[in-house]
């Protein structure tokens, strides 16, 4: 029904929650959290998030994403550092005075209230007059495409619907900042994809500064203006999705975001490395000669049949290899290719006929030096 | 898709009804022992009780004459009417006080770190390990004129002469509240188990202060536990007779103590049976109120 509505009707105009681009500049300065037991769950996190931007906090389980988000929300006291919103130090302010919208992984809808009562809760707390509250609740429910669901109880809704109610409840109070903790992790792949789009669209339309915690790198790259990759409580890198993917600052980021070949190598000088039997050009590096690691994205490697050798340009790395294994994934085919020592994983899109490759075939792998990144071991 | 949706239930319907008609052997077999015990230890005695309450008797001798005279006597006697009222009032006061004492304990146990929770939980219910008779004697020692409480208060110069803390209704209330607290705490802790900590946090993020969070989220969600604890305490407090007897010093007259006196001392079994049935009716009311509250919140 929602789907039909969406394709048939043009989206109705919403007057509220109104866009508030003039507020919501979030800054974290050296934010640190140490739990009893001397482990730093979060260490020295610095970030500066412009108004209206969507920040994705990405990282493996236990790296401190939730802890960071809870500190921003005020649900956890910070051990040291400062949190500023619009240059206003809110580090010590209790959560109910921060005016942030929060969406939990488990939605945390009040089970004893109807959907409308849930959404109206924040307005009640702000003593918004009944009539206005009713109107804003209806608008918020429309915003998340659940008009007319107000009288239901949360347990009578599907996971995706509950998730949208939680979003409406957080948005209706017109928060300075929206905080989302893995809001999509309980949804199936298709619904998650749909919700990603919806959240991003609502976020952009309202121009609301948002922090979005996820451990799904596709989510982070596709939705966010800025991605912060966390590792062991630290912010390993923060930048645009393109920065993170194309210019990872560390081996960890290269490995965590997107698929990549990580191989042992030996740096010969600032732009050449030895990999197995071959010597290749790499992206400029300041790492001193000696043992190191290189990262090459599998889909940045081009496969050509052996006989086309003459076509090769000199500025491209090329290595002769033997196919060890092929895996058909659907949109791509993965090949494991032995290039005389290390094994490269290569991905090529499947379009129509493609390369007829069998295990044992000899092929030529080519890649640009810029796609060969060198990192400390 | 539409085809399968409409045809599936139709195809399933005959099997479903057929299954429902089969005699549920396993459930009945599993329930049988309990049903037998209940029949012998509960249903039959209660039936017997009801029968005796309709018999005429005098001086410890039961006759075969059926009468409703026992009920008429009981319900027209101002002494017994005030006794019903006193018992209900006392049970009510005890229940409310027990709730007020136990709720913060349950709330604390819910928020305390899991490391301490188990220990504190065991400590909370550990009084159950000691017989309530022993605990009542303990209270007699503590609350007496020369007891610890009075000696301390007099010794500190707060009062000139000992307070009358025992052999009156106050003593009974103090004793019952302490004795019933573990039951209340257990019910409340069960109620708190359903409370997800993130709900309170969500309320906080929406602007609810401590008090609003308690009033709008914590309390409503723990209400089923509160209702259960109150039902238990109310019923246990009306039916308790050792504590009122010992701490009331023979000056507090309640339904339970009266049943005991009539049945064991006066040997007026028909009257004792009649009062017992009246207590059962009271329990029925309490149960009705309880299920009403629970239904509203579930
Ligand atoms: N209350 C706590 N007491 C002690 N340690 C904690 C507490 N909460 C979290 N931690 C620790 O802090 C670290 C970061 O936890 P956090 O929940 O922030 O991880 P996360 O990145 O959100 O992981 P996930 O993706 O699994 O949700 C973990 O090592 C965790 O064990
Ligand atoms: Mg988390």
UniProtKB/TrEMBL annotation, chain A:
InterPro entries in UniProt: AAA+_ATPase (IPR003593), ABC_SmlMolc_Importer (IPR050093), ABC_transporter-like_ATP-bd (IPR003439), ABC_transporter-like_CS (IPR017871), Mo/tungstate-bd_C_term_dom (IPR008995), P-loop_NTPase (IPR027417), Transp-assoc_OB_typ2 (IPR013611)
Database matches in Pfam families: ABC_tran (PF00005), TOBE_2 (PF08402)
GO MF annotation list: ABC-type transporter activity; ATP binding; ATP hydrolysis activity
Any one annotated GO CC term: ATP-binding cassette (ABC) transporter complex
Keywords tagged on the record: ATP-binding, Nucleotide-binding, Transport
Keyword ATP-binding: yes
Spans annotated as Disordered: 1-22
Residues of the ABC transporter domain: 26-257
Family: Belongs to the ABC transporter superfamily.
Protein name: Spermidine/putrescine ABC transporter ATP-binding protein
From TrEMBL, chain B:
GO-annotated biological processes: transmembrane transport
Record-given protein name: Polyamine ABC transporter permease
Gene Ontology cellular component annotations, sorted alphabetically: plasma membrane
Compartment annotation: Cell membrane
SUPFAM superfamilies given in the database record: MetI-like (SSF161098)
Keyword Transmembrane helix: yes
Transmembrane segments: 25-47, 83-106, 118-142, 170-192, 219-242, 269-290
Upper classification of the organism: Bacteria, Pseudomonadati, Pseudomonadota, Alphaproteobacteria, Rhodospirillales
Family membership: Belongs to the binding-protein-dependent transport system permease family. CysTW subfamily.
Organism: Skermanella stibiiresistens SB22
UniProt membrane topology term: Multi-pass membrane protein
ABC transmembrane type-1 domain residues: 84-290
PROSITE patterns in UniProt: ABC_TM1 (PS50928)
Keywords: Cell membrane, Membrane, Transmembrane, Transmembrane helix, Transport
Main location as per UniProt: membrane
Tagged with keyword Hydrolase: no
InterPro entries, per database record: MetI-like, MetI-like_sf
A Pfam entry, by short name: BPD_transp_1
């Amino acid at each position: 029904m929602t789907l039909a509505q969406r394709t048939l009707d043009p989206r109705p105009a919403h007057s509220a929650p109104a866009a508030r681009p003039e507020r919501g500049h979030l800054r974290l300065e050296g934010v640190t959290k140490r739990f009893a037991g001397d482990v730093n769950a979060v260490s020295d996190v610095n970030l500066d998030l412009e108004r209206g931007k969507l920040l994705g906090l990405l990282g493996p389980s236990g790296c401190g994403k939730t802890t960071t988000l809870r500190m921003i929300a005020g649900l956890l006291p910070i051990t040291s550092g400062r949190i500023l919103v619009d240059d206003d130090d809110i580090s010590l302010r209790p959560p109910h005075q921060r005016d942030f919208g929060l969406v939990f992984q488990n939605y945390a809808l009040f089970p004893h209230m109807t959907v409308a009562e849930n959404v109206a809760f924040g307005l009640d707390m702000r003593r918004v007059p009944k009539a206005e509250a009713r109107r804003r609740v209806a608008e918020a429910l429309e915003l998340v495409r659940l008009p007319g669901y107000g009288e239901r109880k949360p347990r009578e809704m599907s996971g995706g619907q509950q998730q949208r109610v939680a979003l409406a409840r957080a948005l209706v109070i017109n928060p300075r900042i929206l905080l989302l903790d893995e809001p999509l992790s309980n949804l199936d792949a298709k619904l998650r994809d749909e919700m990603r789009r919806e959240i991003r669209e609502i976020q952009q339309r309202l121009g609301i500064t948002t922090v979005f915690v996820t451990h799904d790198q596709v989510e982070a790259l596709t939705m966010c203006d800025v991605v912060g990759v966390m590792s062991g409580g630290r912010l390993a890198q923060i930048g645009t999705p393109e920065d993170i993917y194309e210019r990872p600052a560390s081996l960890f980021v290269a490995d965590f975001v997107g698929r990549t070949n990580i191989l042992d190598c030996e740096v010969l000088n600032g732009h050449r490395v030895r990999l197995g039997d071959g010597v290749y050009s790499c992206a400029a590096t300041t790492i001193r000669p000696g043992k190191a690691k290189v990262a090459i994205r599998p889909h940045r490697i081009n496969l050509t049949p052996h006989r086309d050798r003459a076509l090769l340009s000199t500025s491209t790395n090329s290595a002769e290899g033997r196919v060890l294994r092929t895996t058909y994934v659907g949109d791509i085919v993965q090949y494991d290719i032995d290039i005389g020592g290390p094994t490269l994983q290569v991905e090529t899109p499947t379009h129509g006929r493609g390369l007829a490759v069998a295990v044992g075939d000899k092929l030529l792998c080519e890649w640009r030096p810029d796609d060969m990144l060198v990192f400390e071991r | 898709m539409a085809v399968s949706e409409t045809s599936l239930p139709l195809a399933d319907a005959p099997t479903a009804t057929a299954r429902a008609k089969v005699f549920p052997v396993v459930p009945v077999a599993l329930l049988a022992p309990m049903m037998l015990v209940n029949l012998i230890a509960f249903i039959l005695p209660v039936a017997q009780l009801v029968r005796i309450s309709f018999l005429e008797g005098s001086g410890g001798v039961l006759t075969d004459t059926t009468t409703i005279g026992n009920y008429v006597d009981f319900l027209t006697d101002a002494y017994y009417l005030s006794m019903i009222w006193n018992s209900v009032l006392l049970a009510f006061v005890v229940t409310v006080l027990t709730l007020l004492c136990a709720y913060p304990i349950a709330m604390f146990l819910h928020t305390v770190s899991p490391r301490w929770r188990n220990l504190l939980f065991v400590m909370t219910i550990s009084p159950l390990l000691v017989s309530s008779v022993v605990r009542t004697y303990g209270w007699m020692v503590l609350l007496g004129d020369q007891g610890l409480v009075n000696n301390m208060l007099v010794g500190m110069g707060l009062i000139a002469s000992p307070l009358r803390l025992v052999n009156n209704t106050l003593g009974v209330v103090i004793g019952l509240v302490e004795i019933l607290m573990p039951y209340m705490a257990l019910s409340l802790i069960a109620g708190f188990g359903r409370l997800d900590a993130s709900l309170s946090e969500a309320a906080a993020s929406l602007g609810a202060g401590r008090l609003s969070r308690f009033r709008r989220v914590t309390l409503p969600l723990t209400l089923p536990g509160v209702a259960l604890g109150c039902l238990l305490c109310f019923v246990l407090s009306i039916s308790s007779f050792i504590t009122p007897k010992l701490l009331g010093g023979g000056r507090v007259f309640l339904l339970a103590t009266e049943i005991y006196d009539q049945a064991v001392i006066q040997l007026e079994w028909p009257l004792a049976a009649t009062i017992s049935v009246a207590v059962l009716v009271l329990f029925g009311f309490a149960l009705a109120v309880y299920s009403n509250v629970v239904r509203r919140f579930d």
